[in-house]
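Hi team,

Filling in the usual template for the complex we talked about on Friday. All components are listed, including any nucleic acid strands or ligand strings, so the model treats them as one assembly.

SUBMITTER: L.P.
PURPOSE: interface mapping
COMPONENTS: two
RESIDUES: 233
SEQUENCES:
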Amino acid sequence: MNSVILTTTTRILLPILLLFSVYTLIRGHQEPGGGFVGGLVAGMAFALYTISNGVASARKIFPLSPTTFLIIGLTFALSSGLLSLFLGLPAFTGIWGTYEFPVIGYLSTPLVFDIGVYLVVFGVSSSIIFTLKLKE
Amino acid sequence: MILENVILYFILPVLSISMLLIFIRVFKGPRLMDRVVALDLLVIVGIGSFSAYAILHNKEVFIDISLILALIAFLSTVAFTWYYVKGDIEKDKFDQR
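RESULT (copied from the run log):
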C-alpha cells in the first residue's frame, strides 16, 4: 500500500508507540500495565510500519529476526526464575534491589521476567504480522 | 459537583445513544465500507466514554487507555482497507444483506 499520508503518520507514530510501550512495561508491577500489554503495543507499532511500508523495509529496521526475540525473551524469563536458586531460595522467588532508581524504581527479578514476557510477545506478534503480509 | 452532573446526565447518555446508533449502522449498513467506518467511529465514542469515566471516578489509568486507543484506533481501518483493496474479501457477500 503506497500512501503518503500513512507513511508520514507512521514515521511520527512509531517512536511514540515504542516509548509508550516501554512506559507501560516499567510501570507494570504496581499499576496496570506490564510486559504483555507493552509487547502488544510494540507489536502494533511494527504492524503499522509493516502495513504502510512493506515487509522488506520493516525487516530493515528490525535488527534481529522475530524468532531471535522469542529466544532472548524466554532466556530472560527463565534466568529471572533461576537466579533465586543460586541464593538458596525456592525457584522464582522475587528478589528486590535496595537502591531506588528515579524512573524505574527498584530493580527486581519480576522486572526482568516482565522484560522477557515483553520480548516474547513482541516477537510472536511481529512474526504473525510478517507471515500474514508475506503472502502479498 | 456540576461537572459530575454534566457527565452523568448529559455526556454519558449522549455517548450511549450514539453507540446505539452506530451499532444499528454496523448491523444494517448497506455496504462493507459503511460497517468499517462505523466500527472506527465506535472506537472513538469508546475513547470519549473512557475519558468521561476517568473524570467521573478520578481514575487516571483510563486516560492512558484512551491515549493508546486513540493512537492505534485507525490501524483496524487501515488493515480492513488493505484487504479490501487487495480483493481478499468477497465484496458481494458483505455488500448485500
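MY TAKE: Strands of chain A lie at 96-101, 105-108. The interface with chain B takes residues 1, 6, 13, 16-17, 20, 24, 31-32, 41, 44, 47-48, 51-52, 136 of chain A (CB under 8 Å).

Thanks, L.
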